[in-house]
Amino acid sequence: MAEANVFTRDGGREGGATEPGARSPHVPGAPAPASLTGPHVLDNPARASLTGPHARFAERRGRVLRYPVDVSPWLALPDDPDAGDWADLAALAGPGAEVPLPGFRGEIPAGWEVTMRIEGVQFVDDGLAAAPDAEAVRLGPADVPEMLDLVARTQPGPFELRTIELGEYLGIRRDGVLVAMAGERLHPPGWTEISAVCTDPAVRGEGLATRLILAVAHGIRQRGEEPFLHTSAANVNAIRLYESLGFRLRRRTAFLAARVPQEAPEREAAPVA
Question: Which are the contacts of 186, defined by CB distance < 8 A and separation ≥ 6?
Answer without folding.
Answer: 45, 46, 49, 54, 74, 166, 192, 193, 195
